[in-house]
Amino acid sequence: MSTDRGYGTGDDRFWWEQELPSQDEMDNALKNLATHNNMVDFIFTHDAPQTALQVIVGGTLRPTDNKFNSFLENLASAIEFKGWYFGHHHTDKSYDKYHCVYCSVKELSIFKTVD
Fold first, then answer.
1. What is the pLDDT of residues 16-54, one digit of tens each?
2. Relative to the CA of 52, which of 24, 66, 79, 99 has its CA 20 to 30 Å away?
3. Where are the domains of the chain?
4. Are 100 and 56 spatial neighbours (Cβ–Cβ below 8 Å)?
5. Do 94 and 100 contact (CB within 8 A), yes or no?
6. Of residues 62, 77, 100, the one with CA closest to residue 30
7. Is residue 64 within 8 Å of 7, Cβ to Cβ?
8. pLDDT digits (tens, 9 = 90+) for 48-71
């Protein structure tokens, strides 16, 4: 979800619906994951599931799009992955397998454990 969306103000001049994946795109992602037994090495998204964000960002988060947030939450519990990387919150913090990356550089390798 874009911070440019006019939460509570109705001012969406700087936000476009296309910033969010369509239902077809989310269905395609689930189909591709199923093809690989719901196992991937890494996930790269702009944002992360709310449960991880509550630990990484802390405090009260801005409103979220329930449909997309639910999609990310379902992904987190339905698939196996080594690391989930995102950068929306402009910080370098990690929690479990979730990594908010802003200024740091991470080496990704399927042959060794990633920090």
1. 777 788 999 999 999 999 999 999 999 999 888 988 988
2. 24
3. 41-115
4. yes
5. yes
6. 77
7. no
8. 898 898 888 886 555 666 678 789
Length of the chain: 115
Name the token pair of 43: 């996930």
Distance CA(80)–CA(37), nearest Å, equals 9
Token output for 82: 């080594």
Residues 12, 50: Cα–Cα separation, whole Å: 23
Q: Judge whether 62 and 7 are in contact, CB under 8 Å.
A: yes
Q: Tokens at residue 81, please?
A: 């992955």
- Percent of the chain surpassing pLDDT 70: 74
